[in-house]
Amino acid sequence: MGRKWNNIKEKKASKDANTSRVYAKFGLEIYVAAKKGEPDPESNQALKFVLERAKTYNVPRAIIDRAIEKAKGGSDENYVELRYEGFGPNGSMVIVDALTNNVNRTAPEVRSAFTKCGGSMGVSGSVSYMFTATAVFGVEGKTVDEVLELMMEADVDVRDIVEEDEAVIVYAEPNQFQAVQEAFKQAGITDFTVAEQTMLPQNYVTIPEESQAQFERLIDMLEDLEDVQQVYHNVEFDE
C-alpha cells in the first residue's frame, strides 16, 4: 500500500501555493462534473466528490461558484477524459489523466514532455496494470484504532488504516469513497487532510540521484500542461 501520502500532498501543495494553476484545473473539473448531471452536489455524486477534493486544496469559493454557474448557463464547451501512460527516466512509470476540448493538441504535448525528459509514451495498459485505483482519506486528531472502530461500526470495508506523520490515512476501494466519507461525517468529522481517488503504484522505485532532476522536470512539465488534471508515478524520493 502507498505510504507517505501526506508528504506527497505537502510537496504538491507547496508547489501550487503561489500559482493559480491548481485552481484553474479544479475549476474545469467542477464545470465538467456539473455539466454531466445536475449542478447540485446533493444529487450529483461526481460533483460532490470533486468539491470534497477541492476543499482539501483550499480552492476559493468564487472559483467553485463560477464553474457551477457556467455549467448552469448551458455552455457548449465539451471535454473528453483521456489517459496516457508512459515511462520516465530509468524505467519509472507515469500515468497522465487529462480533460481536453482538443484531442489533437493534448497527445502531442504529453508526448513532447516525455521525449524532452528522457522518457517515452506507452500504449494503453502498458503502465496502469502496475497501479491500483484507490480512495484515500486523511484525518487528524484520531488514532488508528479509533478510525478502525469508526469504520467497523459503519460496516465499511477498507484496505488499510495507517498513521503517517501526524495524520491517520484510510485506504479503500474507489467505490467505497462515499461510504468512508459518510462514516467520518456520522462521527462529526468533516475536515480532511486529503480526500482523493488516486492511482497508487503496487511497488515504488528509486532512481539514481543523477536522474532525479530529469524526472522532476518531466512531472513538472506534465502538470503544467493546460489539459492535464492528474499525474501519478511510482518514484519514491529519499526524505
TrEMBL record:
GO CC annotations on file: cytosol
Pfam families for this protein: TACO1_YebC_N, Transcrip_reg
Subcellular location: Cytoplasm
Gene3D superfamilies membership: 1.10.10.200, 3.30.70.980
Domain TACO1/YebC-like second and third: 79-235
Keywords: Cytoplasm, DNA-binding, Transcription, Transcription regulation
Record HAMAP family: Transcrip_reg_TACO1, Transcrip_reg_TACO1_YeeN
Family membership: Belongs to the TACO1 family. YeeN subfamily.
Name of the featured protein: Probable transcriptional regulatory protein GXP70_13585
